[in-house]
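Inverse folding, one chain.
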């Protein structure tokens, strides 16, 4: 979905964008690899607003494609039907069209049908809806290649193999820039997904495509995903509170660029958290400069692993309880971005606790207050 109806480009027709900047934000001693990416939209007619995300159609790792081809006894030159219904080589289809990491239900069913007794345990799990959780636990960390290597010699025709795979989906990334500051560029802040399970190194498809595999390519196929639910308040004088640990800081970097360019005088408060100050203070110098300039009114930092006890953004919110409530009472908009599994829930609970503590109301009344903020579109989340 493009924000500019005049653009030729959209999710259905992504723009092949140059990717001129790809640098590591986290320091060499970090346990993470979070990167700053810049993508050029020049000539595309695509436009975005702060709060929007960029959709990226990534290609799979060619090394993994090659291993899969060997494991199914194919050369890669075989002709198969791609996800658009057209004919293409098996190698191209595995690179661009299909999910080749997480096994689909169809793949497991085909494996069970081919391997018979050799996969009796898997057959029992896939054949019993009541054992869904057990199946999930069994599949955790296992990829298509593991099953192929564990059961060599099964006969797969190229077409039958791709029919057992699901369509590769684009990934969304919060845009970390404002066009008022960067023109036709899009900045992204991406945690590169690399991990090891069952003795194999695994690669997140899109985050490692952007980190490792775009150089010399034909451009990164992208589209703009509009996020009307995650817009700055219309009045630039309205105060905003932003809670964005980890890569959750991305849209708030965009907000700060936007508010600086607009110059409306609204107060801005950011809560940022990461593992260690030394290696993980993403955009640290930039944020401190914005604070020195007065664009960032208040910056509260929670480095979780710099001391024995974990310190998270919600702990910093609690320490600033009275001031945070005062901002809410002034009409501040409250934003949360980043991990939706745990962080956003804990931040929500702390917000309610702050309202109850500072206003002296009951937990029920505090929940209603926060619900009222949501209804008034003053409490906005973009979590993943
Ligand atoms: C609106 C929105 C905005 C987003 N913004 C950002 C952003 O700004 N920055 C950002 O970095 N991400 C962002 N994301 C997440 C992003 O879209 C991708 O989900 C993320 O980059 C992973 O994609 P991938 O293709 O690299 O990994 P995938 O190939 O999708 O692999 C990820 C999967 O690997 C598995 N996995 C990961 N780690 C482990 C482990 N240690 N052990 C076992 N299994 C594991 C999990 O099943 C996980 O789901 C956003 C998501 C949404 C919906
Ligand atoms: N499903 C999972 O188990 C899991 C785990 C991590 C990340 N993720 C996903 O990985 C992606 C990228 O993560 P990221 O690199 O942006 O950062 P992140 O993993 O969200 O970490 C950023 C900071 O948040 C802290 N944190 C952990 N739990 C928290 C909580 N309950 N409340 C507040 N802060 C908390 C982390 O501390 P500590 O790490 O020191 O605890 C770290 O200091 C996101 O999509 C996220 O959802 C998933």
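Residues assigned per position:
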């Amino acid at each position: 979905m493009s924000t500019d109806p005049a653009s030729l480009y959209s999710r259905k027709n992504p723009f092949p964008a140059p990717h001129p900047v790809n640098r590591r934000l986290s320091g060499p001693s970090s346990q993470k690899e979070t990167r700053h990416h810049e993508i050029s939209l020049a000539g595309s007619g695509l436009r975005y607003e702060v709060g929007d995300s960029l959709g990226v159609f990534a290609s799979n790792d060619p090394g993994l494609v090659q291993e899969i081809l060997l494991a199914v006894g194919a050369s890669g030159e075989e002709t198969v039907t791609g996800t658009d219904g057209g004919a293409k080589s098996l190698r191209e289809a595995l690179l661009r069209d299909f999910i080749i990491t997480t096994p689909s239900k169809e793949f497991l069913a085909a494996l069970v049908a081919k391997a018979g007794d050799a996969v009796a345990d898997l057959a029992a799990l896939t054949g019993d809806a009541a054992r869904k959780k057990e199946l999930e636990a069994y599949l955790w960390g296992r990829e298509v290649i593991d099953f192929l290597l564990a059961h060599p010699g099964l006969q797969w025709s190229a077409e039958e193999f791709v029919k057992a795979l699901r369509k590769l989906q684009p990934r969304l990334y919060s845009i970390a820039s404002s066009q008022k500051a960067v023109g036709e560029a899009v900045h992204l802040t991406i945690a590169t997904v690399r991990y090891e399970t069952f003795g194999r190194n695994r690669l997140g498809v899109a985050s490692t495509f952007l980190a490792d595999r775009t150089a010399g390519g034909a451009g990164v196929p992208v589209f703009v995903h509009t996020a009307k639910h995650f817009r700055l308040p219309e009045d630039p004088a309205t105060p905003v509170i932003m809670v964005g640990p980890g890569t959750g800081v991305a849209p708030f970097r965009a907000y700060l660029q936007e508010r600086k360019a607009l110059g409306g005088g609204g107060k801005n408060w950011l809560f940022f958290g990461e593992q260690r100050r030394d290696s993980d203070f993403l955009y640290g110098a930039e944020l401190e400069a914005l604070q020195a300039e007065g664009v960032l009114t208040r910056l509260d930092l929670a480095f979780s692993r710099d001391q024995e006890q974990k310190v998270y953004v919600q702990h910093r919110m609690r320490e600033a309880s009275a001031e945070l409530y005062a901002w809410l009472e002034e009409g501040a908009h409250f934003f949360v971005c980043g991990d939706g599994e745990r962080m956003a829930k804990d931040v929500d609970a702390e917000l309610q606790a702050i309202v109850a503590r500072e206003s002296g109301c009951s937990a029920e009344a505090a929940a209603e207050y926060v619900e009222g903020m949501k209804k008034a579109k003053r409490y906005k989340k973009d979590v993943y």
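The domain at 62-163 is CATH 1.20.990.10 (NADPH-cytochrome p450 Reductase; Chain A, domain 3). The chain has a mean pLDDT of 96.
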